[in-house]
Amino acid sequence: MKTALYRGIASLGGVFAALLALELGLRPLATADLPPIARPAVDAFDAPVITSRQLEEGIAESHFSPAGARLTGNAPVPQAPLVVIL
To answer: Cys-Cys with 38: which of 25, 46, 68, 71 at CB 3.0–4.6 Å?
Structure first.
């Protein structure tokens, strides 16, 4: 019959193995480079798109302009004022 200590150690080992497998399984999905630093003064809407996938934000892809603006895929509103949302 197994002791409670042995069952506890085996349970902790199983949790550790599961977390390690999860980390190693998700690691290939992440983009190695960080997204660009935001520089609004040099941003343009017709610039190429940089796609990034960070594990901190889930496994979905995020799209950025080369100047660091996060792109939503929606067209900009013509003659709209420039605002900053905090």
So the answer is: 68
